[in-house]
Amino acid sequence: MSKEKAETNGDCTAVVEQTNEKRIGCTHYKRRAKFVTPCCNKFYMCRYCHDEKEQHYFNRKSVTELICTECDTRQKVQAECENCGVRFGKYTCLICNLFDDEDKRQYHCEGCGICRVGGRDRFFHCERCNMCLPVQLQRDGHRCVENVSRSNCPVCLEDIHTSRIPCHIPDCGHLLHRPCFEQLLHSGHYACPTCQTSMIDMSNLWTYLDSEVAATPMPPEYADYKATILCKDCHKLSTVKFHVVGLKCQHCGAYNTCQTNGFHKESGSSETAEPSASSTSAAPPSPPASTTSASASSSTGDCSLPRASPLDEPPQA
Question: Looking at beta carbons, which pairs linking 182-188 to residues 24 or more positions away fall under 8 Å?
């Protein structure tokens, strides 16, 4: 008798586990439905499961049929099963064909044309940027870049608009994935890959370079040379004294500059040095990493990277 009970309990446990497995869905979404993909007529829990196994991509908005994982009934796309009545997802968007049992504060943005996560109350849709932005940027203002999210990340070259990875929004307005942004910082690259504008507050490094320039006088034969530079932060031209450590912008004080031509003597003589490879360099020489870290440590109290803005574009649901 006890053996029969054990077998019965084992069967019940198996049924419960099977039911739970059905409700879990896949590693990407918790849902109770499978898509019938029109491109290859196969069954997948979501578009990511499809794209991982097939050689082509699948647009979930093209789905017209799905299969209930509770009763295996094939039916048209709808919020609830027409046979057993189960709801395919606590969050349901029939525009995007999105079903998800996990609460991620999803909402559908008509302007973006997709569902996003994070809560509608935390974001607004900028018509010119054509994307959702944090409401703080609506109050503080932001630099609009037309259709900025309809492009690929300049680091990983993956799509930004439909990405499930949060996107960082630097002051210049060019988007890049948050992990790519953090990877750039840890690699010592602080300029936007698109426009070369500084993505974070670099005042500590500029102060350090000021002290390096003051402590490293140029040889007498180069002391009177000047160079015309373009600042990549304020986008203004200025003429400054040439120095091997860096060329400081006279308008904003940044060293994120490049030479626009050769260097010449301050006296105004026609003698001009030949432009070298350094004259077209994208950035001034940087101090050793350990020295830079020490400079940041003396000013901020630790050796961590400068804090980036926490304002990100909401990822796709």
Answer: 182/308, 183/155, 184/155, 185/305, 185/306, 185/308, 186/305, 188/286, 188/289
Q: Which of 136, 56, 63 is nearest to 46 (CA)?
A: 63
Q: Tokens for 182, please give them.
A: 């953090």
Kindly state the average pLDDT of the residues 170-187: 91
Of 113, 79, 105, 83, nearest to 93 by C-alpha is 79
CB 176, CB 191: distance < 8 Å = no
- Residue 64 β-bridge partners: none
User: 286: Cβ–Cβ under 8 A, 6 or more apart, which residues?
Assistant: 188, 292
Q: What is the pTM of this model?
A: 0.65
Round to the nearest angstrom and report the end-to-end CA distance of the chain.
Answer: 51
- Residue corresponding to tokens 């940044």: 254
Tell me whether strands 91-93 and 74-76 are parallel, antiparallel or unpaired.
unpaired
Cα separation, 168 vs 309, in Å, equals 8
**Residue 311 — pLDDT band, cuts 50, 70, 90?**
low
Please report which confidence band the pLDDT of residue 36 belongs to, taking 50, 70 and 90 as the band edges: very high
Inform me whether the pLDDT recorded for 213 exceeds 60: yes
Under 8 Å between Cβ of 46 and 35: yes
Residue entry with tokens 């959702």 = 132
How many Å is the maximal CA-CA distance in the chain? 109
Stretch 117-143: mean pLDDT, rounded? 88
Among 135, 204, 133, 139, CA closest to 170: 133
Phi and psi based region of residue 105 (left: phi greater than 0; alpha: psi -120 to 50; beta: remaining)? left
pLDDT above 90 for 140: no
Residue with tokens 């260097």: 263
What is the reported pLDDT for 302? 42
